[in-house]
Amino acid sequence: MTREMDVLVIGAGVAGLAAAIAAAGRGLGTLVIDSMWVGGHVNNMPYDVGAGRTGPDLVGDLLMQLDDAGAAFEIVEATAGRLDRDGRAVVDTAAGQIRCSALVIATGREDLVPGAEGTDALRGRGISTCAGCDAPLYRGKDVLLVGGGPYFDDELELVASHAGTVHVLPLGSAPDPLPGNARLLAGRRLVRVEGEGVLARVCVEDPGGGTRWLDVEGLITSGEGAPHTAWLGDLVTLDDSGLVVTDEYAQTSAAGVYAVGCVQSGAPGRVPDVVDAAAETGRRIADAIASRSV
Ligand SMILES: Cc1cc2nc3c(=O)[nH]c(=O)nc-3n(C[C@H](O)[C@H](O)[C@H](O)COP(=O)(O)OP(=O)(O)OC[C@H]3O[C@@H](n4cnc5c(N)ncnc54)[C@H](O)[C@@H]3O)c2cc1C
Questions:
Q1: Ligand 1 centre distance from Cα of residue 109 (Å)
Q2: Residue 6 Cβ contacting ligand 1 at under 6 Å
Q3: Are 17 and 49 part of one and the same domain?
Q4: Does residue 244 share a domain with residue 99?
């Protein structure tokens, strides 16, 4: 069975929700789907993400607005996307196909994974990709923080406020200033993690090739990993990092297909800017559909 929608939004992070609210608010039949639940990464931000609201507060507000606007939400994964013969986007899900007049890609990015030997076995056993959720678990304990990006300094501060010693392995420029309990491992590479059932030590390689072990009870990553775009196949043009290329109006290389949020190449990073830009895209989609139907 193929369902028909005016607007189909894939991903119910803040970007997808904002786009859906704006489109549905203009009277378009709008469906948002997400493989997990609403909110995406912002659920991991128990601190002010703008206008004095925590991430979970913002998600709650957006969910109410989504309901008020009359948009529908379903938990199901998008597994493939293509254009049909009429040039309309069709998305495959476990619950069947959905065809739409406008498709919004808002699938975000994966968490940053450490990528060192031994990591898979200890994920969730001392290895965390969510500083906002897990930093308090390491009160007084020694941890390694690996990562980079615009929020690295904030997350270092958060981790340092709980941990005993924080060994800091930046993937880009070194944070400055460093909290008093932080020890910088600039230029090093994490090569191996070990522990009997739970993380106990990590091995880092020095620039000269020598290695050393550090006893830590936590390894926390901070930063954005690969974009969730494999499901798109060749529907739209991606950049070298796998992010969706758009013009300044969030329009992708495929007519009627848009991208918003951190899956979009060159997208704004801060939550309030992401929400504003995605809402603008939702309104623009409504205008485009209205002009096609007159
Ligand atoms: C470590 C870190 C710290 C940050 N700290 C801050 C901060 O302090 N302040 C700030 O303003 N911003 C911060 N940001 C940026 C902020 O998280 C992003 O701008 C924002 O979350 C982007 O939202 P999004 O909706 O684009 O993506 P996401 O939040 O990633 O949502 C994408 C959604 O798509 C779903 N999805 C993925 N693939 C599929 C599929 N195939 N089918 C269905 N659903 C799918 C996912 O389940 C997810 O719910 C931080 C980012 C990181 C990585």
A1: 6
A2: no
A3: yes
A4: yes
Q: Among 128, 262, 265, which residue has the most ligand 1 atoms within 8 Å of its CB, making it the best to mutate?
A: 262
Å from CA of 70 to ligand 1 middle: 23
d(CA 183, CA 202): 15
Contact 227, 250 (CB under 8 A): no
CA-nearest residue for atom 5, ligand 1, is 151
Q: Whole-prediction pTM value?
A: 0.92
φ/ψ of 58, rounded to 5, equals -60, -45
Determine the structural domain holding residue 275 and report its residue range: 2-110+224-292
Split the chain (294 residues) into runs of 10 and give each run's mean pLDDT.
95 98 97 97 89 94 98 98 96 96 97 91 94 94 94 93 97 92 95 97 95 97 94 97 97 97 92 97 96 72
The confidence score (pLDDT) of residue 293 equals: 66
Give distance in angstroms: CA of 250 to centre of ligand 1.
17
Quick one: 77 and 138 in the same domain?
A: no
The residue out of 222, 238, 261 marking a domain boundary is 222
Q: Could you tell me the CATH number of the domain that includes residue 276?
A: 3.50.50.60
162, β-bridge pairs: none
Backbone angles phi, psi at 159, to 5 degrees: -65, -45
Question: In whole angstroms, how far apart are CA 114 and each of 90, 137, 145, 173, 263?
Answer: 35, 19, 10, 17, 20
